[in-house]
Amino acid sequence: MKADLSKRPDEVAAMFDEVSTHYDRTNTVLSAGNDILWRVATTRAVDPQPGERVLDVAAGTGTSSAAFARSGAAVVAADFSPGMIAVGRTRQAHVPNVEFVQADAMALPFGDDEFDAVTISFGLRNVADPQQALSEFFRVTRPGGRLVVCEFSTPPVPLIRSAYGAYLRVVMPALVRFASSNDAAYGYLAESIEAWPDQPTLSSWIRDAGFTSVAYRNLTAGIVALHRGVKPGLPVG
Prior knowledge:
globular; 9 helices
């Protein structure tokens, strides 16, 4: 499957079903352990509080969801892949305040203004229409609530950008052969990273969805960017 913006949801779901069992281990290998640091940064940005409802979209096996739940927040871990959800329910069975739900990011099965925070990590670029997904995130976020998007991005320094491109095209395929049973799936992921727009473009999409106070900060020299926004209005209740 090639990386483009006409990605078929059923193909993406099937791809993640195939890699679900070893997904977390492979990510740690491919990121040289930086995925743990990115998860910590995302959790701090979401800043979940006791009693809040947090929606974790493209939650995968629920590793990030469990981190949010440690605060005492009620977390809904939503993912399009049944395989990911099955693995997640097993791995996070000891976390009582995480609920797994199969959901399409472009048509979320939730009411308006349901969540104090909505977050997605490394999943937005796999959605067929990311801007539609951002509109859905806006719809289900409560007034005054926050959005946090953690996604691969474009290193602003040309030398780092070139080196990262070489890593994606040369080094990453070799590591995938070592760490994963599905070379094609991670080949797709590498292509999707290179095809993804830069930080200002994603920021503009978040603003277009209706969020205000939109900002981002680069992690790991801009290989990853952490985007934030707030839904206008006063909190309800």
